[in-house]
Each structure stands twice: as C-alpha cells, then as structure tokens.
Amino acid sequence: MTSLNILKSPWPNVKSAVENIEKYMDGMRQTYLLFHAFDLNLFEHTVSEIDTNTLSKELGADDVMLQMFCEALASIGFLNKTKNGFVNSLETTTYFVQSSPYCLISSYNGMRREIEGWHSLQTLLKNGPKMLNRTQIFNEEWMQGIAASAKSGNVQNVVLDVSDVIDLHSVKRMMDIGGGHGLYSIAFSALNPDMEIWIMDLPDILPVAKKNIFLYNATNVHLIPGDFTKDDIGSNYDLIFSSFNPSGSNISMIPILKHALSPDGFLVIRQFKEEIKDDAVKNLGWNLYRFDDSNYPRRRFSGPDTVSIDQYNSELISSGFEMIRRWDFDEVSEITVMRLLGDR
What is the pTM of this model? Predict the structure, then answer.
C-alpha cells in the first residue's frame, strides 16, 4: 500500500477549485438576496431614507437579521447606507420600484421558474423535463416582463439604428410581426406619426400592446389578433419588423413575408447571435421544461424549424431580397435589413 505524503500538494492546485465554487456560491447568494427583497417589497419601503428599526416594524422582520440583510444589499449596490439607515440606490429606484415606468421586477418571474427547475434537477434528470402548456409561459405576464426590459433602452436604440438605415418618412404602412408589447411600433410611430402600423400577435399577448398604445397615445398603431404562422397578416406593407420571433428564423415564413411586402419594401429582423445559443449550462436550463408540441432537446432561443441567421439570410436573398445592412446590435443580438426587389 502506497502511503500518502502530507508534504506533497495535489495537482491541480486546490485554489482554483475553491475559487470557482465560491464564485458560483456568491452568485447564488446574491440571487436569493434580490428575490427575497422583491418578495418583501423592501425597495418600496426604502424609496426614502429609513432606519432599520422602523423598517423591521413595517416588514414584520427581526431587526438584527434585517440590518444584516440591508447591509448585504448595500454591498452589492441595491441600497445605499446612510448615517441613519438605508435608501435605494439610483439603479434600484429606476428599475426595481413598482411606480417606475422602467420597473423590471415582472421580468424576473421567468427566472424564478428556472430556479425552481434547477432545484428539481435531480428529479428531472431521472424523469425528463417538466411538461407545461405554452400558455403557462407565453402569456400576458411573460410579455409584460419583456416589455419592462425592452423599454429600458433596447426599443429606443433599435428604432434609432433602423432609422439610420431606412428613411422612415417614406414608410406609409408597417407590420410589427409578433410585436407583443407594441413598444417598437409605438417608437416607430413617434418618428413618423403619419405611418400606419399594425401589430400581429396571439390574443393572449396583445392586451399588453393595447395598454401601451393607450399609455403613449399612439393612435396610428393598430392590433391584429392571430397566429402569423397560420393567419393572413395583410399586404402592401412598406416595412415588416420582426424582433426575436420565429418569423425571422423559420424558412417557411419567407413566402408569407414576401407576399405581405410591397415591391422595394423593407424587412428588418433582429435575432439572437448564434454563439449565445450554444452555452451548455444555459441550454440545460432551457430544457428543464418542455411544451407538449415541442421537440426535445431544444437549442436555446430556437424552435424545431429554426435555421441559422446565415442560412435564413441566404434563403431571403434566393427569394428575391437584397441585403442592405447587417450589424451587431449588442452583445447578444444582431439586426439585418433586407429589401424586396422588383416584382414578386
């Protein structure tokens, strides 16, 4: 039997293993800090400076534990510690207080579902993904979360980028296909109030767009409830806009889009970059749940009929489109502008 040498260190060095585990644990700790702050509605109580004794009474919490809880939230930037207590940071007031028009709390409900899935991973490894109906995820609440995230910068920047490529004042009719929350259409209409815009999406999704149209008084934006993969989307559009939905990745949609566009009409597609669809850990998280009608396993941000951006663009060009411009929009997505040439 070979004896161990207590003076000989193992290889690889234990430091990197411990540091990695601690890094992962830090992420978990910070996630739970944030979600429990949401559950307590804590940030609604810290809009103005408040001492922890008063705060503990308002929340029905132990004052010592709450003090440490607030200290921890301050250490990661969600609260500011003051002489007399705590107050929200500017970021928290902007994005995590319910009265803010940019509140992101609703967008975290989907993350909660994924956390529940990770908690059940051992069971899912044995039995397979948990089966869900699509409406349990793709519903009004889900769309509200997407809207909250979108209007915090994405909508404004996307529309301004597109306006640098297309003269929007030449566009009279636009279709926002799968437009969900309606914010892109509303932003386009703000740049050209004479443009008539239609949003097509599922009936369970469109109430979010209806609320936003009223909120922003976008009287030239109209709603078409329906399934754009099956129902008529209309015709003679000068511009069709598609953001993060199958119309911009499913080749079977190309004839539908082509028929709906006027000659020389524009097709603007925003899609996730291919490389972010291949993260192995996130792909596992993507497959913790399964829909009745979905293939399994699924690639992140992809469906059973999804093709790569390059392949989709190639099919568009073969179908009579020309590429006007393609660019990286941010770290996770890119935008392509195509134009339909001549007679169809």
Answer: 0.85
Please, which pLDDT band fits residue 344 given cuts at 50, 70 and 90? very low
3-state secondary structure of 163: helix
The domains of the chain are located at: 14-100, 136-276+303-340
* Helix/strand/coil (H/E/C) assignment for every residue in 43-54: HHHCCCCECHHH
Choose the weakest-confidence range: 121-125, 204-208, 235-239.
204-208
SS3 at position 177 = strand
In CATH terms, the superfamily for domain 136-276+303-340 is Vaccinia Virus protein VP39 (3.40.50.150)
Distance (Å, whole) CA 77 – CA 90: 9
Integer angstrom CA distances of residue 87 from 45, 74, 247: 9, 9, 45
pLDDT for position 258: 94
Q: Which span out of 146-160, 210-224, 236-250 was modeled with the highest average pLDDT? A: 210-224
8 A C-beta contact, residue 72 and residue 99: no
Collect contacts of 222-225 with beta carbons under 8 A, ≥24 apart.
222/196, 222/197, 222/198, 223/182, 223/198, 223/199, 224/198, 224/199, 224/200, 225/200, 225/201
Residues 258-283, mean pLDDT to the nearest whole number: 91
Q: State the pLDDT at residue 29.
A: 94
CATH number for the domain running over 14-100: 1.10.10.10
The type of residue at 163 is S
- Rounded to a whole number of angstroms, the distance between the first and last alpha carbons of the chain is 81
Letter for the amino acid at 244?
A: F
pLDDT exceeds cutoff 80 at 185: yes
Rounded Cα distance, 134 and 16, in Å: 42
Between the CA atoms of 6, 12, 14 and 18, what dihedral angle is there, to the nearest 10 degrees? -160
Could you say which DSSP state residue 306 is in?
B
Contact call for residues 326 and 334 (beta carbons, < 8 A) = yes
